[in-house]
Amino acid sequence: MNEPQVVTEQSSRRRERLAGLFVLVATLLLLAGFAYYIRHTAARKGWFVEKCRYHTYVQSAEGLNVGDPIMLMGFSVGEISGIEAMPPGSWDKVFVTFEIKQPYYGYIWEDSRVRIRASGFLGQRQLEVTTGVAGKPTVYEKDKHISEVLISGKVTPIAEAPKGIFIKPLEEPALTERAEKLVAQVEKALPNILSMTNGVNGVLTNASGLLANLNATAAQLPPVISNVNFITTNLRDPHGSLGEWLIPTNLNARLDTTLGSANTTITNANQQLTMLATSLETTLINLANITSNLNTQVQANDQILAQISRLVVDSDNLVQGLKKHWLLRGIFKKENAATNAPPAVAKPTSPR
Amino acid sequence: MVGFLGLALGLLVVAQAVALLRQVSAQQFMGKLMVTVVMRELGPLLTAFLLAARAGTAIVADLGAMQISGKLSRMEKIGTHTMQELVTPRLRALAAAAFCLTVYLIFVSLASGYLVAFLQNVPLRLDAYCGQLADAMHWLDFVLVGLKAALFGGVIAVVSCYHGLEQLLRIEEFSTAATRAVVESLAVCVLLDAVFLVGYLVR
I need a surface site. Which of A131, A268, A326, B90 has the fewest CB within 10 A? Predict the structure, then answer.
């Protein structure tokens, strides 16, 4: 065997080894992927963990499938293991069994419920178990294996509960059912909507007629506008101002003359009124003087009257004195003569 | 080449998918999208395209050259069975190569997909991404992908060998024969892919 042949064989062997490695790595990659898939699926489906069977009854199996996940607190904790229709005449229509993985069944107590809720837009539904807050747990473990379960409030060995534990359902209609209801409501409301649309149609028709009338009116407007334009032009023109346009020229001239005369008259009246006011002021001043003098005189008269009064009193005193004078007493002998003097007060007479 | 194609495929698919899924806040479907698009469809098909272009043409040229040089007739004269000696090894080799290259391409695409998602700040951890991929897969996927890839390789080998051995080629006819071999191989691969699609749908 010569040297080139040896080299070729070695190269060929190396190439074969590389090819084998190439295939081996690819196969290992695929197997690793498959192993990861198996491991993940096992964890997801809980192949190697303890599971507890539960069951419930629903009115419709619509949107539910065997293998669908069961949700608890947002986690996928199990799956539906069976869906069966109940015999005709049964109050409950559909029997659904499902399995919950360890340790999630520990959250399910007596008061837990199975909520059947809409999921997705294609009519799917999903079972969601609510966590228990009161009562007893539904599952009891012994050595990490389920030993007893709670059936109708009694703790029963797991072997005596083949159907599993019953949980009350809270069934919501599927999204499609809700959509159907919505459509039914829409159908009910449709006549009103139609009448409303008819009304809207009538309003629109009226509006259309109105617009047509407005259009016709607008078509008639140009002459009016031209007249208005003419008027405003006249108004803007100094020679055709509003006064001359409204009042004819001759009338305007007469009005001007009349207004001039009125102006003169008013001026004269003003002058005369001024003079009158001046005279009136003089008169008033005189009157004030008169009243002042009168006041002075009245005050003087007041003193005169006081003096006259005193004179009268003094005269009376004089007369009374004269009456009592011995010389003149005889003349005034007449009793009860009326005098202005006040009646004499009877004085006690002294004994003579 | 397969690595580059896988990288490009992952980048393109995920970049487009992330942009689309973000609009509807559905990033959790990225794994499903990658499995459906890359693993089930584009991975095997792209590998087949690559093999047809690279190995199919080489087979046509090789067999054509053997015919021209008279090697083929000499082999027949000494009683060698051409089908066993020339076609069967190529068929096995291309089937194995297609299978391996498909696995590599899918692996690189899925990895580069996560890389793109990571670079685009998609809130997705690696374990969650792997979990999404595993959730989206089915055990049948592994079987069907391997089977499909091997079948594509076999088809390419058979069609290329046919065009190489069909008639005595002249030198100037090599390119035409190679082109025809590639086109027919791809057409048959696409048809087979459609058949597999039916298999996926009725699963």
Answer: A326
- Interchain CB contact of B203 with A (< 8 Å): no
> A33, B96: Cβ pair inside 8 Å?
no
Residue B31 CA to residue B33 CA, distance in Å, equals 5
Using CA of residue A307, residue A310, residue A316, residue A319, what is the dihedral sign?
negative
pLDDT by residue (tens digit) across B109-153?
888 888 887 887 777 788 888 888 888 888 888 888 889 999 999
Q: How many CB atoms lie within 10 A of CB A33?
A: 22
CB-based contact, B196 to chain A, within 8 Å:
no
Amino acid at B128: A
With tokens 């303890």, the residue in question is A50
**Cβ-based contacts under 8 A for chains A and B:** 36
Give the total number of structural domains in chain B. Answer: 1
Report the pLDDT averaged over residues B155-174. Answer: 83
Domain that holds residue B146: 2-201
Contact A37 B100 (CB under 8 A): no
pTM: 0.56
Closest Cβ–Cβ partner in A27, A30, A36 for B130 = A36
Q: Which residue has the tokens 């539906």?
A: A80
Q: Where are the domains of chain A?
A: 11-48, 51-172, 176-246
Q: Judging by beta carbons within 10 Å of its beta carbon (0-12, 13-18, 19+), is residue B56 exposed, middle or buried?
A: buried
Question: What is the pLDDT at residue A341?
Answer: 55
Q: What is the mean pLDDT of residues A209-221?
A: 87
Q: How far apart are CA A312 and CA A291, in angstroms?
A: 30
The two beta strands, A51-58 and A94-101, are antiparallel
Which residues on chain B are in Cβ contact (under 8 Å) with A27? 100, 103
Q: Which pLDDT does position A348 carry in this prediction?
A: 52
Measured between CB atoms, does A37 come within 8 Å of chain B? yes
